[in-house]
Automatic annotation (TrEMBL):
It comes from the Bacteria. The lineage of its organism: Bacteria, Pseudomonadati, Pseudomonadota, Betaproteobacteria, Burkholderiales. The chain crosses the membrane at residues 260-282, 303-329. GO terms for cellular component: cytosol. Coiled coil: none annotated. The gene is glk. It comes from Massilia cavernae. This is Glucokinase. Pfam families: Glucokinase. It catalyses: D-glucose + ATP = D-glucose 6-phosphate + ADP + H(+). Its EC number is 2.7.1.2. The keyword Kinase applies. ATP binds at A21, D22, I23, G24, G25, T26. The keyword Lipid metabolism does not apply. GO terms for molecular function: ATP binding; D-glucose binding; glucokinase activity.
Amino acid sequence: MHADFLMSRAAEARPRPSLLADIGGTNARFALEVAPGQLECIRVLPCAGFATLQDALRAYLALPEAAAWETPWDAAIAVANPVNGDLLRMTNHHWQFSIEAVRREFGFARFGVINDFKALALALPHLAPGNLRQVGGGQAADAGTIGLLGAGTGLGVSGLVPSKGGWEALDSEGGHVSFAPASEREIAVLRFAWREFPHVSAERLMSGSGLVLVYRALAERAGLPAQAHSPADVIALALSGECAVCAGAVDCFCEMLGTIAGNLAVTLGAIGGIYIGGGIVPRLGSAFDGSGFRTRFEQKGRFAGYLATIPTFVITAEYPCFAGVAAWLRSSAGVGSIM
Ligand SMILES: Nc1ncnc2c1ncn2[C@@H]1O[C@H](COP(=O)(O)OP(=O)(O)OP(=O)(O)O)[C@@H](O)[C@H]1O
């Protein structure tokens, strides 16, 4: 019998929820999809609090709110990693696991693993206008290619390319492109970062730890001692106006993100718009809109006019990735591990 047919019969009879997860370098977010589009028991657990993915899964499923539902029938998780085989080692922390072994251990009929930004790209068509905030001008072309990037623990990149069936989401490791400075201040940041990394990728600077590195570089440039700030400290002290170097670091961060977003737009031909996710930009609120991001986005010499037509959107939804993980799980044919 054809595997797709088996799948659809099984899906029709599905009596139990699907487990969805979005696992970054810092946070593991879980939810139960109890009916299409209906999420229950959304919880965020710290990755650092668990030795393995399986431990975090067990802890989530043991929460009274999760245990009140039937055991999940199937599951899909988005991870901040490339996915290209059964064994997954996470780049930004210590978890590693076999997809098939986890499927068997938890008794999932299907268990899928997808890159987190590919999943977020698949979520974009499902986001309501209220879950987005446009920064600057431009108008999305209908069915135009879409670019996506987001700074969090790392720098995720993906996009959506129109296809006959709807959209194809891109597998990308675009956060690891080489950093290109576009101002004297950024040249100073690059020189500082070279002392710590032989290759300074965009992610080395456009991420939580990158924001701290930019802060340290600018403190040195100003002849001031750097404090042991966390990324959250740098953002809070910048927004409150208490620390001029922190404010400069956030400003520099936004401008660098403008360069990389503009690079993504011209590389993909993303006339459908550029979307910005990740944990950092939404925390900057209106300070991001007032930063040099959009000016820098359009600052592409002879292509300034082309960039000016492309809109840029901040994703403001709290858990935007789940919609993409759920859509991907629904669309994946076959029983067993999905990669
Ligand atoms: N107020 C804050 N609270 C928590 N984290 C913050 C805050 N401000 C900045 N950050 C930084 O945001 C990053 C976490 O971002 P995010 O929530 O996107 O995590 P993640 O999904 O685990 O990351 P990724 O998907 O990039 O691996 C960390 O580097 C953290 O230091």
